[in-house]
Amino acid sequence: MPTFTTYDGTELAHHFKGDGEPLVCLPGGAMRASAYLGDLGGLGAGRRLILLDLRGTGDSAIPADESTYRVDHQVADVEALRVHLGLERMDLLAHSAGGNLALLYAAAHPDRVRRLVLVTPTPWAVDLPVTVEHRLEAARLRAGTELYDRAIEAYEEILGGVDTDEAWDLAAPLFYGRWDDAARADWAAGDGQQNEKAAAAYAGPGAFDPPATRAGLRRVEGEVLVLAGGLDGNPRPALAGQLAELFPRGVLDVQPGAVHFPWLDDAVWFTSRVERFLASGR
């Protein structure tokens, strides 16, 4: 297991999968170990995936100062990884809450990003909030069967303040395009892969300066793909499109029938779209 030492002496782990040009991958969660990304539906067949375990997750060490779980402090971890890998510029992929780390990194180091893929990103860093209405709009697209009607009812309770494990388990099918064995396994693994203390601190007070981040993103010269799921409420495709517009060379694409983990929903569609973008910028 390769490791490197970041700016404050914390030892961070990263994992290699596949062969080809490097693609640095930042997990979501927030603060979920990178293992859940797998090989991103087979994307490692043509790319050398470099999966970073964020501080305090997976095989990475817990930092001496746990206030550094806040996402803005982790920008320096991504830069330390780039230097460790010896990359002048890098292709970067981030999922879900990890999109905020990628946004902050791109704004701080626009010249170090060659191409950026934001997969179902939650764009808190640029003040594009995902609302309860967005989440319920997407959930209600699934209505009509016992499984999803029960899931929608549970999700409405969660969004109304009933935060229980039972409710989340009932709502879980809404976060995947198909409630199959792969989706159930991913859901079951989630709790054991997440550092809850770190997750609570990740987007804490002071983490974001949206005007400064938006200004930084306007300096990103590399191409950016924002990939939304057609059935995802976090974000809805329209909100993902607003994020893409913040970049000079940003583009939105929507994976049909996908929710929050599109490589599980349709691996062929996902990998072909991401590979095409990384190869051509389109």
Brief write-up:
The protein has eleven helices and eight strands. By secondary structure, it is α/β, with parallel strands linked by helices. The chain has one domain: 3-Layer(aba) Sandwich (Rossmann fold).
Q: Name the average pLDDT.
A: 96
Helix content: 25-40%
User: What is the third-level CATH name, the topology?
Assistant: Rossmann fold
Q: Helix/strand-derived class?
A: alpha/beta
Proper CATH architecture = 3-Layer(aba) Sandwich
Number of domains: 1
How many beta strands in the DSSP annotation? 8
Q: Could you state the CATH homologous superfamily? A: Alpha/Beta hydrolase fold, catalytic domain
Description:
This protein has one domain (3-127, 195-280): Rossmann fold (3-Layer(aba) Sandwich). The chain is 39% helix and 17% strand. The chain contains eleven helices and eight strands. Helix 1 (71-85) crosses helix 2 (98-108). The protein starts with a strand and ends with a helix. The model has no long low-confidence stretch (mean pLDDT 96).
